[in-house]
Hints:
Layout: H1 13-33, E1 49-50, E2 57-59, H2 70-91, H3 103-113, H4 116-126
Antiparallel strand pairs: 1-2
Helix pairs in contact: 1-2, 1-4
Amino acid sequence: MSKNDTPAFAFPADLTALQTRLHQARAELEAYSRTLPWSVEPMPGWAPKTNGNTGEITEPGREPSPGYTPEQLAEDTRLRTLVRDLSDQVSTHPHWATLERGPGLVDARIALKSHPDVLAGQSAAAV
């Protein structure tokens, strides 16, 4: 086996489904986070800092943040909780106890993230 080959792993269908849902939930959280104000609580902004000699901006400023609305906070909390719960379910799945501890177990955990069933599930959800 060459360095770039990855061993084939067989995973239970429920584990690949959990990993797929975890990828989807992380993507949902990331996309939602990009729509939110930069601060959960209302915070004042600040002007950019400039070089006194050249006028070049050395540190960007920020507009004030209105903070999250109660609805935004609830959705952010829901998505973060979902990601955490799915992460727990994937990492404590009974399948992992069937594998010998060591590098092979690490390789299997890594392989799950890019398993064809997981990637197919992500592609189907994106459509």
